[in-house]
Amino acid sequence: MEIKEPFVFQADAEIVKRAYNNCNNYIIEYDLSLPKEYCIIYCSSNDLYYPNDETSFNDSIVKKNRFEWYRSRIKYGYKHIFLRDIKKQWYINGVNNILNTPQKLIEFIKQECKGFKIITVGSSAGGFIAVLIGQILDAERIYTFNGQFEIISQLNKKQVRTKDPILYRNKLNNEVLPFYDTCNFIVKPEKIYYFYSNKSKWDIAQNNHIYNININRISFKTSNHGIPFLKSNLLPVLNLSLSELNKLSGKTIHPIAFSLKISGLRETIYGLKPVIIFILKKIYIYILQIVKRLINNEHQP
After folding, report:
1. InterPro entries this protein is in (predicted)?
2. Whether pLDDT at 237 is above 60
3. Considering the entire predicted model, what is its pTM?
């Protein structure tokens, strides 16, 4: 008897299927003021929309046509390609119904990048595909911010069928299974610049997976997944020279000290504002929950 897979929004919802079938889910733009030298590939993460429901999908994808990194560009890029995986499954189904496998997506990028030096950028799931694209296409530089290096371990999780349905449904697909582990494709580890959080359980595990591979690691004293430093530091980091990047390799840094060094006091204070607001909101919600419990306890007989 055939086992019917459970409905999962990001894989099975009609609104997602329509966007997958009818939208490119990539954008290509040019800076005509620059020489035709660099093509930059920006890869969106699974944080593209949240939660996984029609309201958030409609707001982020249908209405706003959101692509991560759109406002954080490498300044010397002539050609900019922005990618997104609206199924939020590490690009195992590519980006649309034509570029529907990692192989087809990477071949498309290869054609678009002919004659250019390549740089790839991404965080988390975006960092995962940035490494794959960058290594297969011999990128000059690969930025991965807490990107995964393998996703096959996701199959061992109890809720994999409902959390990562595309990974689960392709677990016996020999054409895409090699893409579950970037180590199958890493041939020039020195091109990878891995910014990771050394207090994040998932990122520690991912770092351990490639521990014996000589990539450029920049370790941050934080548990924050995704960008391991203040987001106001992103543009300066993306536009560091190769020698400046190499000086960071192998270092362990506190995010605030890093921000002060790379952006200065004023930008650090500015960058801390959203962090402080987020913390205050969490405290506010926590206090409300306590007050609600106290009120409920008072009304109990």
Report:
1. AB_hydrolase_fold (IPR029058)
2. yes
3. 0.90
